[in-house]
Amino acid sequence: MNRIHYIYRKVINSLFGDVEVFFALPFRWKIRGALAIGCLYLALVAMIFIALYPVYEAGSYSRTLLLIGYILLCIGIFGVILPVFIPALQRHPLGVIIVSSLFLLVAFNIILTPIVDSQNKFTLYALFVGFLAITFGARLYGRVIKEVSTEKTRIDTEIKLAQKIQTDLLPVIDIDEKHFQAFGKTVNAQEVGGDFFDVIKISDKQTVFCVGDVSGHNIAAGLVMGIVKSAFRTELRYNDNLLSIAASLNQTVIEQRSKGMFVSFAAGIIDFTKGDLELINAGHPPVIRIAHEKIEELSLEGAALGVITRMSFKPSRRDISGGDIYVCYSDGIIESRNVYREEFGSQRLTDLLRSLDRNKSAKEIYEIVSRTVEEFADGAPQIDDRTLLILRIK
Q: Distance between CA 159 and CA 147 in Å, rounded?
């Protein structure tokens, strides 16, 4: 029974699966698409009737000759199809076309002879309707496909433009200053992603960093990403209070987001004069700190931006010292899967960071982590954006 159900689904999908290309088109093009498909299936029915009619109504016409005609028809059709699978036949395309055409001409001559000689008008009507439906349906279908192609080209162009804008908004960060090193990069799962990160030097004494993840991997997520990152930079021009900035960003997300969209966010201010780090976290994976041969996850409570109107954060302060390493990442890193659908996981990330040489630069640490995640995935599809930011205190 399951086998029959499987075959049924395959047949239905083969017959009607292609109509999905019309779903996003204007109503008038949907009508044309429906007419085109209707005509093509009408032609298919007519051709099947014409092909099978001689077997039953050929009268004294030779059944053996009909069988030969059907065999020649199959040989002609396979002659056109086989070059797709046999590269050697592609070297002589003209010869393949000529031979296949000869087989088809002889086959049609044999099969259509009893139809033409028949006194049954229905066969002639079927022949006329079949060719008319093929001509009309193919013309309509061609126009609809042209419209679909034009629309797809326009959408692809807009996506490429959005991708370029996002690339400009999220350049690779490679900083080597007096007090710290930083290296970060985002690898999108699709053309446009929702992850973002930044490192901003607001004075000789203070540097701010952030990492965030907008829910979703579409253009809408990319737009919200750009808004939040730009708003964060704008806020820093007038305010260095992380709690105030987070509250303002939360309101921005609520005003700009689509239904159900939210933004996980983590940010910190490093004060090199005071020797401390102030950190907040809004539903984002914890920042990992490597210091004095110890690894610590700086996890803080806080809902993601855009979830509730009034946010309450509990900032955390940590002393910093030379050699400290801070690892900021999005969940696309730890949720990367291999072909067996196993996740990389936070434990593997922690173990990897624990085994690293703490004297390596921020860029070297990034490359090791990124390469390890790629090797773990081993060619499995990337399901989420991967963002990784490494900061190293000198």
A: 18
Q: Residue 123 is encoded by which pair of tokens?
A: 């066969």
As a dihedral over the C-alpha atoms of residue 135, residue 140, residue 143, residue 149, rounded to 10 degrees, the angle is -110
What are 23-39's pLDDT values in tens digits?
666 777 777 777 777 77
Torsion of CA 240, 244, 250, 251, to 10 degrees: -110
Right CATH for 172-393 from 3.40.930.10, 3.30.160.390, 2.40.10.340, 3.60.40.10 = 3.60.40.10
Q: Taking Cα atoms as reference points, which of 1, 110, 128 lies closest to residue 54?
A: 110
- Give 67's pLDDT tier (boundaries 50, 70, 90): confident
CB neighbours of residue 126 within 10 Å: 19
What does the domain layout of the chain look like in residue ranges?
Answer: 2-162, 172-393
Q: Is the dihedral of CA 229, 235, 239, 241 positive or negative?
A: negative
Give the max Cα distance, the chain.
106
CA distance 343 to 327: 19
Residue 237: both structure tokens together = 């021009």
Q: What is the pLDDT of residues 219-274, one digit of tens each?
A: 778 888 888 898 999 999 888 888 889 889 988 888 876 667 889 999 999 999 99
